[in-house]
C-alpha cells in the first residue's frame, strides 16, 4: 500500500522551505554551523536554477541559549523570550553572512499569528514577500517569539510555513526535520517503513505517529502531517524530508529524495487559501438554516445570504473571518464578512440583501 512512487523532476517555481530546530542544532542543543552552511549552499543552487525561495527557519532559541546562560529557576516563557530575542540576531546574521558569500541578499520578516488573522495585515505581508522575491531577495521568516502570547502562538514553524506557502501561492512546501519522513511506526525501529507517497486516497496516517515532540522545537510529526495534508489540499506539493541528509534539496528537485511526498490536489483560489487556515482566527460565528446549507453545498455557485442566517455571535467587522455552522452546530465552513455585525442584525432573515459572505471568500470544510 505504501510503495515507492518514482518522483519526477519538480516544475518548481516558488518554494517555501521550513528548517526545523533539530536540523540546525547539534545533539547538545548548540547551533550546527556546518549544517546551516550546507543548506544555504543548497538554497543557492535552487536560486541559481531560477527558483524563488522563502525560508521559514527555527534556531533563534538555540543561538540565544549558546550566548546567554540563565538561572535554572527563570520563568520558562521569559527564558525563551530572552533566548529568542538575543538568538534571532545571531541567527539572521549567520544566514546573511553565508548567503552573501554565495552572492544572495536576504531580508528578515518576524511575524505573529495576528498578522494572518487580519486580511489587511495578511495582504501587506504577502505584498512585502512577493516584492522581495521579485528583486531576487530571500525572505527569512520566523515567529516573533518575544511578543507572541501563548494562545496566539503558531503550533510551530510548520504551521507558519504552511500559512506562508498558501499566502504567496507557492507550488512547493518542503518541511525539513531530522528524519526521512513519515514512517509506519517509530523511525528508530527496524520494522518501520517510510511512507514515500501520500495522495487523496491514502488512509489516515495519524495512527502511525508517536505524540512525542522534538528536543528543541515545540512541534511534532503530527503537526507536520496535518499541515502537509492541508497544504496539499490547496494544490501545493509537500515534502517532509531529512534536513541532515547531504544535498537533500537537490535530491528533491531532481526527484531522487528519500522522503514523504504529498501529492497536491487542484489549486484553490488565493482567498480560499487564506480562509483554509482561518479556523483559529475567526471573529464571529453564523448559524444557517438547512436551505442555505443545501445551497452552499450544491453544484451551483452560491454566496451566503442573510435570509439563510438563523443566529450569530461575536463582534466582527467587514473583512473579518466568520465560522459557519449548521442548525445542529456542526462546523461547515469559513468565510470573510462582507459587512459587520450591526448591518447583519438589520438584514438577517430578509430577502434581496447583499451576501454576508461572497462565494469568492467562502471555504467549505468538505474541501478537506
From TrEMBL:
Family annotation (Pfam families): AA_kinase, PUA
Membrane-crossing segments per the record: none
A molecular function (GO) term: RNA binding
Binding site for ATP: 18
Record EC number: 2.7.2.11
Matching CDD domains: AAK_G5K_ProB, PUA_G5K
Cellular compartment(s): Cytoplasm
Keywords: Amino-acid biosynthesis, ATP-binding, Cytoplasm, Kinase, Nucleotide-binding, Proline biosynthesis, Transferase
Domain of life (superkingdom): Bacteria
Pathway linked to the protein: Amino-acid biosynthesis; L-proline biosynthesis; L-glutamate 5-semialdehyde from L-glutamate: step 1/2
Segments forming domain PUA: 284-357
HAMAP family listed in its UniProt record: ProB
Function: Catalyzes the transfer of a phosphate group to glutamate to form L-glutamate 5-phosphate.
Family: Belongs to the glutamate 5-kinase family.
Protein name: Glutamate 5-kinase
